[in-house]
Amino acid sequence: MLKAHRSRDNEALFEATRQGTFDDLVVAIWRAYTRPEQLSRVRGFFHVVGLAAYSPQDFREFIDSLDDLTEILASLAEREGLDAKEALTLASVTVAAIRGLLLQEILTPGVTSEDAVSLILRMSKDRSVPRTRKGP
C-alpha cells in the first residue's frame, strides 16, 4: 500500500514536469512536500523510515520504493547530458538533500526556505560530479 501511494505521488510529480528539466522536478518535489497540507504525510514518511530502520524485513516493499524519485531525477539528468553514473550520483545526492531539508522542516518549521532548494540547484548547476584526484 505504501509503495502504491508513493508511486502515485512520484508519477504525478513526473507528469507535471515531463517536458521540464531536472531543476523543474527538484522545485516541484520541494513545493509538493512543503505545502502545509502535506506536512502530516511527510511526518508519516519519516515515521515509517524510522520503523524500517529497526525492522527492514517488515518494510521491504517500502524500502525498495525509496529509489523511485532518484531514478526519475537520474533519467532527467541523463537527458540533459550527464552519463549514467554521474546522473545517478547527482540524483542520489539531490534526493538525500531534499529529504534532509524536509526532516529539518518537520523538526523546526519555518527554518528551511526556498533558498535551501536554490543551493541544491546551484550545487548541481555545472551538471558534473567532482572527481577524486589521483596521486598526491
Could you explain the architecture of this structure?
By secondary structure, the protein is mainly alpha-helical. Helices cover 71% and strands 0% of the residues. The protein has seven helices and no strands. The chain has helices spanning 2-16, 22-34, 39-54, 60-65, 68-79, 84-107, 114-123. Helix 2 (22-34) runs parallel beside helix 6. Mean pLDDT is 84; it is low at 129-136.
What brief labels describe this structure?
136 residues; mainly alpha; globular; disordered C terminus
In summary, what is this structure?
By secondary structure, the chain is an all-alpha fold. The chain contains seven helices and no strands. Helix content is 71%, strand content 0%.
By DSSP (H or I, 4+ residues per run), the number of helices equals 7
N/C terminus separation: 51 Å
Number of strands: 0
Please estimate the helix content: over 70%
Secondary-structure class: mainly alpha
Query: What is the C-alpha radius of gyration, as a whole number of Å?
Result: 16 Å
Topology order in helix (H) and strand (E) letters: HHHHHHH
Q: Globular, elongated, flat, extended or rod-shaped: what is the shape? A: globular
How large a portion of the residues is in β-strands, by DSSP E? under 5%
The major sheet is characterized as: none
Query: What is the overall pLDDT average?
Result: 84
